[in-house]
Amino acid sequence: MSKSIKHLVMLALFTTMALTIFVVEAQIPVPVPIPGVKLGLANVITLIVLVVYRPRDAFAVLVLRILLGSIFTGTPVLLYSLTGGILCFLGMALLCKLLQKKHLWFISIVGAVLHNVGQILAAIAAMQSVQVIAYFPFLLVAGCITGFFTGIAADRVIHFLPKSIFPKPAEKPAKNEKHS
Predict the structure, then answer these.
(1) 43-58 in b/e burial notation, b at 16+ Cβ within 10 A?
(2) Would you say 105 and 51 are in contact if contact means Cβ atoms under 8 Å apart?
(3) What's the CA gap between 107 and 48, in Å, rounded?
(4) Helix axis angle, 78-98 relative to 43-52, nearest 10°?
(5) Which of the listed residues 31, 67, 93, 148 has the most CB atoms within 10 Å of its CB?
(6) pLDDT per residue over 107-155, tens digit each?
(7) Contact by Cβ (8 Å): 110, 92
(8) C-alpha distances out from residue 45 to 35, 51, 74, 114, 155, Å
(9) C-alpha triplet 118, 122, 126: angle, nearest 5°
(10) pLDDT digit string (tens) for 68-99?
(11) CA 28, 151, 46, 13: dihedral to nearest 10 degrees?
């Protein structure tokens, strides 16, 4: 199997895992009376791909998961998920680079908080009201708690993943290599 095909297959598998987790999690009622609060377990997969592969691979998995997840769950919150997800990703990718992919619990907390910031910004734009900022303190606390556990889970999963799925430096497609 060629290196680029193996790479695409692995990303497809990670996308499928993230989507499955997202769809299952969407069915779990969260006993918190704050809209938008959930565990964010699909972010474990985003973190794993961000650490094991390239940032653009993690971004692709994230965006595909959000788009397909909104279709499969029928939830009308695509704007909130995309805004939060992209802001979360940008923060986590930057911190992964700065912290050399260490301290995933911290990277995940920052990502969760940025996801909530993105959701609040999307809500302000969609509702044309700044009153939704009142939710932010609750989302901040929830994001810190769930982000911590998501980061710990990602770190543990990476620790126990078979090293055969990790791309070897020679296996990473070159920056100028084209994918079909």
Answers:
(1) bbbbbbbbbbbbbebb
(2) no
(3) 12
(4) 40
(5) 93
(6) 999 999 999 999 999 989 989 999 989 888 988 999 999 999 999 999 9
(7) yes
(8) 23, 10, 22, 17, 11
(9) 175
(10) 998 888 776 788 889 999 999 999 999 999 99
(11) -70
What's the pTM? 0.85
Q: Output the DSSP codes for 3-69.
A: HHHHHHHHHHHHHHHHHHHHHHHHTSPP--SSTT----TTHHHHHHHHHHS-HHHHHHHHHHHHHHH
What is the C-alpha to C-alpha distance for residues 110 and 25, in angstroms, rounded to an integer?
21
Nearest to 36 by CA among 154, 141, 129, 153: 141
In angstroms, the CA 18 to CA 168 distance is 23
pLDDT in the model for residue 29? 77
Separation in Å, CA 111 to CA 10, 73, 74, 132, 151: 23, 23, 25, 20, 10
Assigned token pair, 107: 């990277």
Which one-letter amino acid corresponds to residue 59?
Answer: F
